[in-house]
Design brief:
The chain is of the alpha/beta class. It contains 11 helices and 7 strands. A 5-stranded parallel beta sheet has the order 1-2-3-7-6, with helices on both faces. Magnesium ion (MG) binds next to β4.
Length: 308
């Protein structure tokens, strides 16, 4: 969670310098979801992500330097600098891709889950989708397909209250998105997406069910994003002090720290060590990315087709 937070906070600063090309959508505030879920996954498992994908990539084990390089559009990036923030993918880590198409991930997750089922790998596919994405036909079709084929899939709705500037209270014809699971004959649960342990417990149940052949499930995580929809968003649709209040009362890292300290699971010095390591790693990733070469014109014609 700290790694994702610092990665995103640093990008917020660096993007403002104009050195990062394209669009960047930051995941800060939502870290407990990617972390609480991906901690339960291994090399058999696949995830699909969204346009707000950095947290999912990091939690599934993508290389920090490779991600930073990709976001800077440099050759050391995970996709050789040709994808950028919204197209980061690393098949070697089971990370099937961020996605510029809202609702683009769930059908891919069905495919990955079908492959796991047919090959008997024991793998599961987790599809992260936003509240806006959960209103897309692709999402609902995927729930249906996953259910009739009893696919090892977990659909995770990251309900951060907005799709761009549109409130989910306006755009979603339901109070809890998890209620939609009923219509597809699968379990659905709503959890506090700021609470690492609540996410972890819900995900444990869904992932175990999928692994033992029990079919798909749906987890809705209610959460907040700390920055705009994209870097540069003026956020005029948000209430004054909305984000400050959320940071004060619901921050997932602060909550995690107080939970693990009071339960004596970790010590303050162990947590400080994590913070120091993360700070050094991000500093290094940024400086390596800034000095890495950009792809050349000739690179445009490579990686277009792959051979099997
Ligand atoms: C099919 C499609 N429609 C519209 C867009 C434009 N768009 C990009 S992000 C976004 C909002 C997505 O909201 P949500 O799914 O809640 O994710 P969040 O940004 O809140 O994480 C929209 C409408 C798009 N990229 N793809
Ligand atoms: Mg949203």
């Amino acid at each position: 969670m700290r790694l994702i937070r610092v990665f995103e906070e640093r990008l917020h600063v660096e993007f403002a310098t104009g050195e990062i090309p394209g669009f960047v959508h930051l995941y800060a505030g939502e870290e407990a979801i990617a972390t609480g879920i991906c901690l339960l996954l291994d090399e058999r498992d696949r995830i699909t992500s969204t346009h707000r994908g950095h947290g999912h990539c990091l939690a599934k084990g993508c290389d920090v330097h490779g991600m930073m390089g990709e976001i800077y559009g440099r050759k050391n990036g995970l996709c050789a600098g040709k994808g950028g923030s919204m197209h980061i993918a690393d098949l070697s880590k089971g990370m099937l891709g961020a996605n510029g198409i809202v609702g683009g991930g769930p059908p891919l997750a069905c495919g990955a889950a079908l492959a796991a089922k047919k090959l008997g790998t024991g793998g599961v596919a987790v599809s992260f989708v936003g509240d806006g994405g959960a209103n897309q036909g692709t999402f609902l079709e995927s729930l249906n397909l996953a259910s009739i084929w009893s696919l090892p899939c977990v659909f995770v709705i990251e309900n951060n209250g907005y799709a761009e500037a549109t409130s989910c209270k306006y755009a979603g014809a339901c109070h809890d998105f998890a209620d939609r699971a009923d219509g597809f004959n699968m379990p659905g649960v709503t959890v506090d997406g700021h609470d690492f342990f609540a996410v972890y417990e819900a995900a444990t149940e869904g992932i175990q069910r999928a692994r033992r052949g029990g079919g798909p499930s749906l987890i809705e995580c209610k959460v907040n994003r700390y920055y705009g929809h994209y870097e540069g968003d003026t956020q005029s649709y948000r209430a004054p002090n909305e984000v400050e209040r959320i940071r004060e009362t619901s921050d997932c890292i602060r909550r995690f720290v107080s939970q693990v300290i009071s339960a004596k699971l970790l010590t303050p010095s162990e947590l400080e060590k994590v913070d120091r390591e993360v700070a050094g790693l991000i500093d290094d990733a940024v400086s390596v990315a800034k000095s890495a070469p950009r792809p050349l014109g000739a690179d445009l014609l490579t990686d277009v087709y792959i051979s099997y």
